[in-house]
Amino acid sequence: PPAARVRNLTKTYGLGQALVTALDDVTLDIAAGEFSAVMGPSGSGKSTLMHCCAALDTADTGSVFIGEQDLTKLKDKGLTRLRRDEIGFVFQSFNLVPTLTAEENITLPMSIAGRRPDREWYDNVIATVGLGDRLKHKPNELSGGQQQRVAVARALASRPRIVFADEPTGNLDSRSGAEVLELLRRSVDDHGQTVVMVTHDPVAAAYTDRVVFLADGRVVDELRDPTREQVL
Ligand code: ADP
Ligand code: ADP
Predict the structure, then answer these.
(1) In the list 15, 38, 196, 197, which could disulfide-bond 165, CB 3.0-4.6 Å?
(2) Complex ipTM above 0.90?
(3) Contact 195/188 with Cβ under 8 angstroms?
(4) Containing H/E element for 64?
(5) What is the pTM (predicted TM-score) of this model?
(6) Which ligand is nearest to the CA of 132?
(7) pLDDT digits (tens, 9 = 90+) for 153-188
(8) Ligand nearest to the CA of 138
């Protein structure tokens, strides 16, 4: 089955006259072992879609399946288990725990899940994010770019089946961005993970297998094996 299936997902924010339709009847399949990008103007619903797919938010109507599991049918316990064991998430605002070091933040989901990392993969993730001695520092001692790399490492370290990343290279210079994108690419190619990434960057989109374009909460276009020029 697809890694994720979105069916007729609709979500509206606000009340009365201030009603905003963030998602408007979105239907989408995310194939297992594929690296996808979600692109579209600011406010087109990209973050809302990612949050609904990752069980961090709920839609008004429609359904989301992660593998065989229908998120709308799961209770809190099931959702917690799913988020803990099967999903990695890179938040746009990082969401690091301020009292923990970078390294403790990275290993936190695994500690909670009681899982040991595959040593080789973990070392590869740590090496690629390139934090060096900064691993022992707390988030407020790190630059935005460094915090972003911690957030990416945290999502990938336990090798969850599916990773949702909300602009994972948004705060990185082009070289660090390329390293993170190659890490995401490798997690798909070498480890069969599924990655869905929101991005505004055509260079980032060119790393993916497929781009889905959103506008006004709807899927308006789709492109396979995108080149940078095609998404400019
Ligand atoms: P994108 O990620 O593409 O920028 P979002 O999913 O963040 O889009 O937002 C889609 C629409 O929903 C926007 O019009 C946004 O203003 C609105 N929206 C998002 N989150 C909230 C919220 N918590 N409360 C009210 N409106 C929201
Ligand atoms: P990056 O390119 O990763 O965003 P910057 O150029 O912003 O890094 O930061 C350069 C150096 O300054 C880094 O070694 C970083 O650790 C340090 N630094 C940046 N912001 C802070 C901060 N708020 N507190 C302490 N050190 C910081």
Answers:
(1) 197
(2) no
(3) yes
(4) strand 61-66
(5) 0.88
(6) 2
(7) 999 998 899 999 999 999 889 988 998 999 999 999
(8) 2
Q: Decide whether any atom of ligand 2 lies within 6 Å of the 142 Cβ.
A: yes
Name the residue among 227, 212, 230 with its Cα closest to residue 26. Answer: 212
* pLDDT value of residue 149: 92
How far apart CA 107 and CA 109 sit, in angstroms, is 6
| DSSP states along 123-150 | HHHHHHHT-GGGGGS-GGGS-HHHHHHH
Distance between CA 79 and CA 63 in Å, rounded?
14
pLDDT tens digit sequence for 3-55: 999 999 999 998 777 889 999 999 999 999 999 999 999 999 999 999 999 99
Distance 107 CA to ligand 2 centre (A): 22
Closest CA to 129 of 188, 163, 171: 171
For 120-131, b where at least 16 C-beta lie within 10 A, e where not — what string? ebbebbbebbeb
CA of 207 to the centre of ligand 2 (A): 27
